[in-house]
Design goal:
By secondary structure, this protein is of the alpha/beta class. 28% of the residues lie in helices and 31% in strands. The protein has a seven-stranded mixed sheet, with helices on both faces. Strands 2-6-5-4-1-3 form a six-stranded mixed sheet.
């Protein structure tokens, strides 16, 4: 096994609990290896830091698998890590549909596995973990069967663009026997169809599970506007909660068609309707018409995926929050989110505050939340924390 020696003064993030070593932290590599191999990692003075897998094609040159000296990474090691993942979820989340493995935050770097009812969806994003992918899947199936949750099929969605950064081609298809890739799930009592083959990410956004439930007390008897509705999850929770009317808006015709199907599945087509539109264009139009809502929900896609574009993203978040506040009646509620890791909580709060100032509104914070616990936040591994979720009461300045 080759050994990666870090430069003097490097590895501080790793020592603090992080999981990555960047290419510019490495002094030299002793021994032969091919990309994807396991390597030992040591500090400049030879102090052992653990074992990870290497890929010199990536700026993240090493992803750590264990911080223990001389840890053997074998089938038993993988099985124990998978058991730990399942045991954690048993104690923290409804497992009918949930994220079972969340990469670095579950100490299995570069792989995500989601469970939709009795279907698993796998997303492998790093070269080294790709070698363990089938072992991880087999272990999950075996362990879940022991827990009374047998798995009917597995689909791979390793088609994310970030694989190119690892020098990897996209992969998509069945692992094992084929099945109908349109899967029905139930979350918080709401039924959804999930398209695991063609839906965004792995088919559904499980990270908002508890946040969707959190909006329900606001929505009884309310007129609700749900922006960036995707397949209608927040809109349907508002409808189930007893909203008087709900309008869900998304720019994707496919997403809106799926949202409408989900509304019919829940018997909400009379209450919850959907519209294909660009939210940035629609909100000023609704304001001009004099529309007023009791609840406005803003759950946009990530406006930034790099530090370089954060300022531009802030403009986007400021604009939609400004428009959303103006569409609320006095005392109405704003539900607003950011799923970008690079939009920190502090930056997001600053952006919302600037929007409130521009709109001449005062905000009373009802609640702050993050991603559901099946997407654990590993301290010192900053990339695992990304979702910021606020509920505010919006009051007119007097």
């Amino acid at each position: 096994m080759a050994t990666v020696i870090l430069k003097k003064g490097e590895g501080r993030t790793l020592s603090a609990g992080g999981a990555w070593i960047y290419d510019n932290e490495i002094d030299r590599i002793d021994g032969d290896f091919i990309n994807g191999d396991l390597v030992k990692v040591v500090a400049f003075n030879g102090y052992p830091l653990g074992t990870g897998f290497i890929n010199t094609n990536s700026k993240i040159a090493v992803r750590m698998m264990s911080r223990k000296e001389d840890q053997v990474i074998d089938d038993a090691f993988i099985e124990q890590r998978v058991r730990d993942c399942v045991d954690y979820r048993k104690h923290t989340i409804d497992m009918s549909s949930c994220r079972l493995i969340f990469g670095e935050a579950d100490f299995l770097p570069g792989i995500v596995v989601d469970k939709y009812s009795d279907i698993l969806v796998v997303q492998s994003l790093a070269l080294g973990i790709d070698r363990f992918k089938l072992k991880i899947v087999d272990a999950l199936k075996r362990i879940l069967a022991e827990e009374g949750m047998p798995i009917r099929g597995v689909y791979e969605r390793s088609d994310a663009k970030v694989r190119a950064l690892e020098g990897m081609k996209p992969v998509k298809g069945f692992i094992g026997d084929p099945f109908d890739t349109k899967v029905q799930i139930v979350e918080n009592g709401v039924k959804y169809y999930v398209d695991v083959e063609n839906g965004q990410k792995t088919g559904f956004f499980l990270d908002q599970k508890l946040n969707r439930a959190a909006i329900r007390p606001l929505c009884k008897g309310a007129k609700v506007l749900d922006c960036f509705t995707h397949t209608g999850s927040f809109a349907l929770n508002a409808g189930i909660a007893g909203a008087a009317s709900v309008l869900g808006v998304d720019a994707s015709e496919l997403a809106v068609a799926e949202a409408e199907e989900n509304a019919r599945l829940n018997g909400l087509e009379g209450t919850v309707r959907f519209q294909v539109a660009d939210v940035f264009d629609l909100l000023p139009q609704l304001e001009k018409k004099g529309e007023q809502y009791d609840v406005v929900i803003l759950d946009p896609p990530a406006f930034t995926k790099s530090r370089e574009s954060v300022k531009k993203a802030m403009k986007g978040y400021r604009e939609i929050n400004l428009r959303g506040m103006k569409l609320l009646r006095d005392g109405g509620f704003l539900v607003t989110c950011s799923c970008s890791h690079f939009m920190t909580r502090e930056l997001f709060e600053k952006t919302i505050a600037l929007a409130a100032k521009d709109a001449r509104k005062r905000l009373r914070q009802v609640e702050y939340r993050t991603q559901a616990p099946d997407h654990p936040i590993l301290w010192a591994a900053d990339e695992s924390f990304y979702l910021k979720f606020f509920i505010f009461q919006v009051c007119t300045e007097k």
